[in-house]
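Would you kindly consider the sequence and fold I have copied below?
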Amino acid sequence: MSNPVFSWCFIGTGTLAKQVAAEITASGRHRIASVYSRRPEAAEAFAKQYGGEAFDTPEQAIRNADAVYIVTPHPAHYPYVKLAIELGKPVLCEKPFTVKAEETRELFSLAREKKVYLAEAMWTWFNPCANRVLKWMKEGAAGRIERVVTKMLVNVIHYAPRLTDPMLAGGALLDSGVYPVTYLYRLFGKPAAVRCRGEIEDGVDLDDEIDLVYDNGQTHHISLSIRRDGSENFIRIEGEKADILIEHFHYADHADLLGKDGRLMERFEGKTTLLNEFDRVAEEIREGRTESAWVSPQATMDVMELLDECRRQIGLVYPFEKQEQERGEAT
């Protein structure tokens, strides 16, 4: 007997929420059961278009689905994840998991205590292409790694208003930088140190240069921008025996294993979709898992620590963090 349609509570109704809802409901394997937004009219419109019922409170929405998908602006991730866990509902939370590592650690600790499934919606690592690259690396297909070049220079500044809003933890690092940092973490492990330089305008970082420094003496560099014209978006891993090239790495549909003379030795094709992520999460939840096999809690926590350190080095403190600090000093 086939599994029944998996039902989701959507908390958040913005651009990404609409993309996700359209793709997963079209499959017939997922449905939207409940919706919550701080703006009731947005929840009503979303439910009318994609299905489900709009609820007046997040508690009501969370209770009326198999699992919760949190796709709000970054600062709201922490309170909604915590609420869902306390209500005993499995959670898939968009990246970056929270604004800071301390919150991430607290949420995974709570999930383990309550035995509730919790995972980061890092869609890249739920998909076949990224996992084939990981397999190549484990098999030593490229030989000893000599250099890694990572560029994510894409003009997405107008994708959504939150990208330039410091009150919503906007900027390049948390919204885009989480992708390459996570990708390299999955391939090479946690670096011994991270070095970061960034340009901050109007309270958000728009361009960053990140070095991940490893104990073996290698430094893997990431160039990041959300406003750069002339898009460059790739990872090139240069090895002693071969190179691995992944164009548009965070949503790649193919990865190339190249000879040192540039000839194509092998091309792996595997489309990155949002549906892959939701299918696999639903499967894990049905299996009774409380942690994802695709994006481990440790990976999410370690990456958040690296992003914290980058923010510290470039002096990026969001206004709501300053307000929290001032309130703490006043008490």
